[in-house]
């Protein structure tokens, strides 16, 4: 009897491992997960539980063995039998033309086929598989001698512990890049900040710092990933003929390769690829610092050969750097719409991330303290994607002797009122509210912005001018402006004054969610404005609602509810709202028909991303008509997530929680099927 149980445990463990490996393969290699993360986690837990009962059945390559073993004293040195090479760099198109000419001449061809790949910004690693088992992982080091980081590499989920397929190569050495995805990097730094530990300057440093941890358990908790792109050695199976087939071969045996690599013909297609990837750069969830072109045919590669430590047949075409050094001229304080004092470093202009940058945010006083940045300092600044440029570190060696530590002001630099630290304990806020002209300016800028009342042509400079000369004191005053007075202002003519008046006219017709958003109530963004509008139906009801009623709205917690109540309790806000309505701002007040017997009765739905044929607002109205409760954030209680293009983190969260995800078509089909 006992024996039978053993046999079934052995089988069950084997089956679970195979299932987990198959899911890993779908997730990391095929880029097409078939189950939500929660299902995957459950399988892993089941396997762990079984292995706890039967420790004798634990094998090195079991998926449970990625949690990291005992810490090391130091890393052993590994000698790379086949050296790990570096790449020649090109920063201009001309250098690329030269490279192409050299390759064609070397191979004796008139036109050349290249494999074009993104250049992942991480660190190179070499993995050794013997009979399909991962036996060693080593860093590049100086190309000849690296460090043995096997225990750490084993904790990286996208590195298979075992290759797939019945006949794995006898020996395989594969090279690739270990990197940290941007989302994971941000989460790691948030955590480091909370723990009072050092922050990593960028994802590459974080990846390198993580892979070089002596304690594999630390590395296991770092969100590292891996793509492979080159062969070190291969025995026991025949070698592919070209880079394209090599990448397919990797993929077939279960090794993750980057999906945006592509074969291209000649230098024109290389350039087209470069432009395409440069544009896509900020949408990728990992950092790249250029693209790599490789002569695809291995025979051609042999003919072309090497220059010192780099192949002559490959070239990295670099993107504009995302980090540069420059000097801080002064540190200034900006006062935001809610009075927050934000320090900004005014910089010697520098070209970084493809644009010239002359300001970088320093976030808050704590961040200035952490960096110890001083006026006159030489700093590293970073602009990644569309993110606001920030100072990442100070080059202390270049600090001038007399540089003084920065003292954060305790008063508003614009109106002189006290600026105490707020309840969160980090941000100082000017206490003067709308008596402070900076706050007035910022609140009017917000009021006219695209997602608010969208007054086209009403720029920042114009608003500043009108507030400075005392002509306007609030958003409501905008509607008292006349064409003739606007035409007399700096940089204005009759035509732009007329356009502005008609833009103001047009902005009067709005929607309740937009109007609420435009008021700039603390912490009330677009989505919360929509939720408030649909929950309370009218502005009057919302303005009169109690804290309890506000908190009853999904996604509105005590802090937001308190902020909303305080906003409507302040007389000057009520005066501005009344004045705006007196000046003719209006919206459709027909209440959305709530259908208590609709298909979505009692269902909580979240909408994310851009839907193909309706706006989120329309989708929300429509869902409410079907009886749904539309909420802003995904939680365990969410029944459906309706996802359009660029769904962001809500989709990830929904998948992780096992929430059903619908696209617009599926949503409509569901309603149709229920109605039929
Ligand atoms: S090929 C024989 N391909 O860039 C060629 N390298 O600057 C060896 N890298 O050390 C490298 N993405 O760490 C290659 N698609 C890619 C790459 C890539 C990133 C890194 C790698 C290498 C460095 C050279």
Architecture per CATH nomenclature, i.e. the level-2 architecture of the largest domain: 2-Layer Sandwich
Mean pLDDT: 91
Give the number of DSSP strands: 24
CATH H-level superfamily of the largest domain: DNA ligase/mRNA capping enzyme
Q: Count up the helices.
A: 24
Radius of gyration over C-alpha positions, nearest whole angstrom: 30 Å
**Beta-strand proportion:** 15-25%
Report the biggest beta sheet as strand number plus sense, adding barrel if it closes.
Answer: 5 strands, mixed
Q: Kindly give the count of domains.
A: 6
Oligomer: single chain
The residue fraction in helices comes out at: 25-40%
Biggest sheet: strands side by side, in what order? 2-13-10-3-9
